[in-house]
Design brief:
about 80 residues; alpha+beta
Length: about 80
């Protein structure tokens, strides 16, 4: 994260069509950010986007972590 202030020479503002936009946490309201993320996730589903994933119980984290696969995302779930 950057600091609370930005040092920018005024000549930069006068000599270019610079635009300053926020990004990151608090740059947009949380509800708007969540809605945008939900839209992206819904679009991936309808487009058939898939992620190679392997699901394992959290109780197997030590065994599975060491034997991890570079071709699949390992996702741990709470123990049943």
């Amino acid at each position: 994260m950057s600091g609370p202030e930005l040092a920018l020479p005024s000549a930069v503002l006068r000599s270019s069509s610079i635009e300053l936009m926020g990004s990151g946490i608090n740059s947009v309201p949380a509800a708007r950010l969540f809605a945008a993320v939900a839209s992206v996730l819904q679009a991936t589903r309808s487009a058939g986007f898939q992620i190679a994933a392997e699901v394992a119980p959290l109780s197997e984290v030590e065994k599975r972590w060491k034997a991890g696969s570079a071709s699949r995302r390992l996702v741990f779930t709470p123990a049943a």
